[in-house]
Amino acid sequence: MPDALKNLFKRIQDGMEGVADAVLGERAERLLDSEIRTVDDGLHAARGDHAAAKARRIANEQRQAELAADIATAEAKVESALRQRRATQAHAAATDVVRLQARRDELVAQGRDLAAQEHQFAHASEQLEGRLRRLKHQLDILRASNSLQRAQATVARRQPGEATYPEPAFASAQRMKRRTGGPSVAGTIKGETSAATTSDPAQAVLARAQKRITSSARKR
User: Fold this and answer.
1) Distance between CA atoms of 35 and 41, rounded to whole angstroms?
2) How far is CA 209 from CA 169, 198, 213, in A?
3) 0.70 cut: is pTM over it?
4) Termini Cα distance of the chain
5) pLDDT on residue 32
6) CA distance linking residue 163 with residue 165, whole number of Å
7) What is the pLDDT of residues 117-161, one digit of tens each?
8) How far does CA 66 lie from the centroid of its chain?
9) Distances in Å between the alpha carbon of 75 and those of 85, 95, 134?
10) Do 46 and 124 form a contact (C-beta atoms < 8 A)?
11) What is the signed CA dihedral for 190, 191, 195, 197, rounded to 10 degrees?
């Protein structure tokens, strides 16, 4: 098989592989992006649950504090009634104390459950935050890799034959000089200056300025 045909088949194969890699890369991006959205939704939900559990715990503690004050008031009534030898009033006040203490005990048990729930939601939020950071980092890396692959594939398709890199400017200049019969790189400094002056307008301006400077120095 001629070398030119081999090179053509190789470029076609490389191009197909590049397309396949790009498709897989884009699919991976979509999957990661979808997972990021799912985790982000879960994180928002966990944060909401955590805030609600915290609010319930605080409300529970406030109610416990109120009951503690009510219990202290009821116990004071019991003592006052006993000092006054009012047995009926003392018994009624003691009954209130028992009822309030039972209610407080219920709230204390609920408070422990609420604190446990708050801790669980806080832990879930931390885990989801960490996972979200890792997924976003993976997505950034994947996007950078896919972008690089696409750029490399584009460059490879634009190169003629098997040339991977563009021709150096030095080689191109040498080839042009050979075609036009101009001086080579090994030419004299005068020849290089003349060629630069002809091809580069800025060099011509510099050359004229240098001549004026030299002429002015001679007049002095």
Assistant:
1) 10
2) 28, 15, 6
3) no
4) 76
5) 86
6) 6
7) 999 999 999 999 998 999 888 888 888 877 777 777 677 666 555
8) 48
9) 15, 10, 58
10) yes
11) 10
